[in-house]
Design brief:
The complex is a heterodimer. Helices cover about 75% and strands about 0% of the residues of chain A. Chain A is mainly α. The longest helix of chain A is centred in the N-terminal third of the chain and has 32 residues. By secondary structure, chain B is mainly α. Chain B is built from nine helices and no strands. The chains are: A mainly alpha, B mainly alpha. Chains A and B meet through α3, α7 and α8 of A and α5, α6 and α9 of B.
């Protein structure tokens, strides 16, 4: 337990095994441990919205499992193409470092989320609408992914200084990850759990495609009842993406043109 | 099998496009393993594409899965069969010094890389297939992935052509000399960026690159239409399985129509 908190501290400060110039061996395992543990913790807190009644307790477990599942499943789906594209771009020799950088980003998201968990719980105590809970969680995820840019900078900075192609590939990674992640988040709903509805791992009507819903929405062919929740999702997701990009631009400076 | 993977790995790492090797000809590009591995990669993506017919139909249509797995590699090689003769004839006519076998080897590498990128996108296609019922979306997603993979393949081809030109425009140098030159270059360039491979000189618009550029456009157009002729790859859920559909419209009209369907359904 002590080692675990020590690892979190080292990770946040970029010390010990997590220092950007430390040897890579052993880092990946710790990153995955942090990702799963902190993700589970935040997810469980996220699932407390519908109450702590004994018959609803498994909602906590479901929500808890879904947060690391969302990140890891998206990561694993995107990994093969990212690997091939890195190789084609001639950056295979750096791939071990790249892999740790992208895993570290995800671990950082969950660590920040775990730190924000008490605020979420506090918000739940003082909010009355399910929608407010959804929006607040979207905000928390936005803050967490924006803060994770610090880690992106720490681990990707040296790579970008070595070859500016890493910058383009990082963008490709963000794009791919967001593209798959949005659909993954859509498929894995509900994350929070509507209080009146029975607890379920998947929502029976939730299966479907986020982008098709977006297209329908753009074409105005959605029934009025759905429009509100869908717009909510859209606003939350696009806000997240915008925040992510803005912070990324702030954190990772453009390379000066060579004289 | 391991030999295939080694060839694939070398192609992906850009070793086949090394100007030092290209200066001595194209013999380092082995045709058989590369063809075999690209067929295998095509089959992998085809299986992910054909999953749709299994996920959306009751009973699941395994014939469509097999058909898709065969059609994806067939698409690439049939397109090559259609366009290769004209490439060879025109390049010979314009004075490119590559023989037919060299030309074939040269374009095989981008095709392998194209298929490798496509196959690596396969899991994402599979994930969307399993979570989506919308046929227009799947069609557009696949068109998008083929395009992305094609663009990466094209970039590789252009890089190979320019290193070929660099190799031909320079008197052949022995490897130790080149290494020394590279070291000297990197010592001065280290302050800016470290470039591991000596970059080819400026890309001259020679006969070779012009011919290949025109050919790439032809290849892409024929490929798109070949995909249309070989359809269905995914299989519209409300139509029964057919090996090929009838002759009708063309690829580009259908992409626009699909976009309309996705927005208007």
């Amino acid at each position: 337990m002590r080692a675990f908190f020590q690892a979190i501290d080292d990770f946040l400060r970029g010390r010990g095994v997590f220092a950007s110039d430390a040897p890579l061996s052993g880092r990946l395992l710790w990153l995955l441990v942090l990702l799963i543990a902190c993700g589970l913790f935040y997810g469980a807190v996220m699932g407390t919205y519908s109450g702590l009644a004994p018959e609803r307790l498994h909602q906590l477990l479901y929500s808890g499992v879904k947060v690391p599942l969302l990140l890891l499943a998206t990561f694993l789906l995107c990994l093969p193409s990212f690997f091939v594209i890195n190789t084609v771009a001639g950056l295979r020799d750096d791939f071990r470092e790249v892999l740790r950088a992208v895993v570290a980003t995800q671990s950082c998201i969950t660590v920040v989320l775990a730190g924000l968990a008490p605020i979420t719980a506090f918000w739940y105590l003082s909010c009355t609408h399910y929608r407010q809970a959804v929006l607040f969680n979207a905000l928390m995820f936005g803050i967490a992914s924006a803060s994770a840019q610090v880690v992106v900078r720490r681990y990707y900075g040296p790579l970008i200084r070595r070859s500016s192609r890493h910058r383009q590939l990082l963008w490709a990674w963000f794009f791919l990850y967001a593209f798959v992640g949005i659909q993954m988040a859509w498929v894995l709903r509900p994350f929070i759990g509507v209080p009146n509805a029975p607890v379920a791992f998947f929502r029976s009507e939730a299966w479907g495609n986020a982008y098709v819903v977006v297209a329908k929405l753009l074409a105005g062919s959605v029934t009025p009842g759905d429009t509100f929740t869908t717009t909510l999702w859209l606003v939350a997701l696009s806000g997240l993406a915008a925040l992510f990009i803005i912070l990324y631009r702030m954190v990772v400076p453009r390379r000066k043109p060579p004289p | 099998m391991i030999n295939w993977l080694r060839e694939l790995d070398e192609a992906l790492r850009g070793r086949k496009a090394d100007p030092r090797l290209l200066a001595e000809g194209t013999a380092h590009i082995h045709i058989k393993p590369l063809v075999a591995v690209s067929v295998a990669l095509g089959i992998i993506y085809g299986v992910f594409m054909g999953l749709y017919a299994i996920a959306t139909r009751t009973p699941p249509s395994f014939v469509q899965l097999v058909a898709s797995a065969i059609k994806v590699p067939a698409l690439f090689f049939l397109t090559l069969v259609v366009t290769f003769p004209s490439l060879y004839v025109f390049s010979a006519l314009l004075g490119v010094r590559l023989g037919p076998k060299d030309t074939f080897r040269l374009i095989l590498v981008p095709i392998v890389i194209n298929l490798a990128v496509l196959a690596s996108l396969g899991p994402i296609t599979g994930f969307f297939t399993l979570s989506t019922t919308s046929y227009p979306f799947m069609k557009l997603l696949n068109v998008f992935f083929f395009t992305v993979a094609g663009i990466i393949g094209l970039k590789v081809l252009l890089a190979m052509l320019s290193s070929l030109e660099a190799a031909q425009s320079r008197p052949p140098a022995t490897l130790p000399e080149l290494n020394k030159a590279a070291e000297a270059q990197s010592a001065t360039a280290q302050a800016v960026t470290a470039i591991p491979v000596p970059r080819p000189l400026s890309r001259e618009k020679t006969a070779a690159s012009r011919t290949f550029l025109v050919w790439v456009v032809i290849y892409a157009l024929v490929g798109a239409q070949m995909g249309w002729i070989l359809r269905p790859f995914i299989g519209r859920p409300d139509l029964p399985f057919q090996l090929f559909r009838g002759r009708e419209a063309n690829f580009f009209i259908d992409v626009l129509r699909t976009l309309g369907q996705l927005l208007g359904q």
